[in-house]
Write a structure and sequence with these properties.
The protein is α/β, with parallel strands linked by helices. The chain folds into two domains: 306 residues, 4-Layer Sandwich (Metallo-beta-lactamase, Chain A); 26 residues, no CATH class. It is built from eleven helices and 15 strands. The strands form two sheets. The protein has an eight-stranded mixed β-sheet. Strands 7-8-9-10-11-12-13 form a seven-stranded mixed β-sheet. The radius of gyration is 22 Å and the shape is globular. The structure holds zinc ion (ZN) (2 copies).
Length: 373
């Protein structure tokens, strides 16, 4: 596993690697885990965009849930019900593609309360988060209706919170945690960046954005700032085979080029700057880093999946998580699972039922009819 190529933070007293489930978070500490750091082209080493933020008060939040990111979330072996809320920065698939897995995976994984999901509005209702979430749910009717008889029915529910994309405002305020959304400049109205403030610590996540004054104004002085940058134009042409026009469109018009992100990071001046949303390989990282260093000389981490950042007032430590590939759902909060209410099971048509070798009867418990075995 690669490590972030340049980290000026100290290691402090932390173990060399982060083993999920073995380290209690200090009451004044924040932990950030990169669940997805790659590009819309999904690859095993880097899932699509996603960041987990854990706080010393026990609260946990996920910012974006692009394709593949949920496989990394489950590798942390954390109960799904521990996540207070899920936030989307915009409706590109590489940021919300794992919607179905967040919803149904967490349900099958033991969640016993409705999912709390937040996302921005758009210029028209059809471009907003509410529309997206409702249509996703509607399209999965077969899935939901076949599960509500077996799994706790409440797991099918989502509380959808759509907020105004067009201004900087607090969209979540609970238990000492404030999450602020502000507009991102990314192709079309409706994309946002997010800022989380808790206990004197601030985390800012760009989502996708080209460099903007709005970002500088809202991120200034933050402890940890995650800013997107795409691979360099040369890398996009050479490695992805894009023509120059396409490479420039993607690398600078739609996203931030590394040297552009660096200009923003210099202005924001965080305690730790993190860049992501590029293929971070041994042969692309040096050029990416050199481009950032044209304008930004502060502490820098070049993110890859499972990079972990511990933040306190005194220090910021970056490490890699060590995870297992063979995880089962964390069952520590499953006490209520057996008792939770189910709905009626879907029933097969008689001709399909008749074809069943071992007859079963739909009931509240969905058991095999053992008399007929
Ligand atoms: Zn995007
Ligand atoms: Zn993206």
């Amino acid at each position: 596993m690669t490590t972030p190529s340049e980290t000026q933070a100290t290691r402090g007293d932390y173990p060399e690697h982060y083993y999920p489930g073995t380290e209690e978070l200090g009451e004044n500490e924040m932990r950030i885990v990169a669940l997805g750091t790659g590009r819309p082209f999904l690859r095993r080493s880097q899932a699509n965009a996603s960041w987990l933020i854990e706080l010393g008060n026990g609260d946990k939040f996920v910012f974006d849930y692009g394709f593949g990111s949920q496989m990394n979330f489950t590798a942390l072996e954390m109960p799904y019900s521990d996540v207070n809320a899920w936030f989307a920065t915009h409706l590109h698939t590489d940021h919300v593609g794992d919607f179905g897995q967040v919803w149904v995976g967490s349900w099958a994984g033991g969640r016993l309360e409705p999912l709390e999901m937040y996302g921005p509005s758009g210029l028209e209702p059809k471009y907003g988060f509410q529309h997206f979430a409702e249509k996703q749910m509607e399209s999965y009717a077969w899935d939901t209706d076949t599960r509500v008889g077996a799994l706790p029915a409440i797991g099918a529910e989502i509380n959808i919170h759509e907020f105004d994309y067009s201004k900087a405002h607090v969209v979540y305020d609970n238990n000492g945690v404030q999450i602020t959304s502000f507009p991102a400049v990314h192709l079309f109205d409706g994309a946002v960046s997010l800022r989380l403030d808790w206990n004197g610590l601030t985390f800012v996540y760009s989502g996708d954005t080209t460099p903007s004054q709005i970002f500088i104004d809202n991120a200034k002085g933050a402890d940890v700032v995650v800013h997107e940058t795409f691979n360099t134009i040369e890398q996009l042409m050479d490695r992805s085979g894009y023509d120059e026009r396409t490479a420039r469109a993607i690398g600078t018009y739609i996203h931030s080029a590394p040297q552009e992100a660096a200009v923003v990071l210099k202005e924001v001046d965080p305690r730790l700057a993190v860049i992501f949303h590029f293929f971070n390989d041994f042969d692309t990282a040096p050029e990416m880093q050199a481009k950032v260093r044209e304008h930004y000389q502060g502490p820098l981490a070049m993110a890859t999946d499972f990079m972990v950042v511990n933040v306190t007032k005194d220090e910021i430590v970056t490490r890699m998580a060590e995870i297992s590939e063979h995880v089962w759902p964390n069952k520590s909060k499953h006490e209520g699972f057996g008792k939770a209410e189910r709905k009626k099971m879907t029933e097969l048509s008689p001709w399909l039922k008749e074809a069943q070798l071992f007859p079963k009867f739909p009931s509240d418990r969905g058991l095999v009819n053992e008399d007929e075995l």
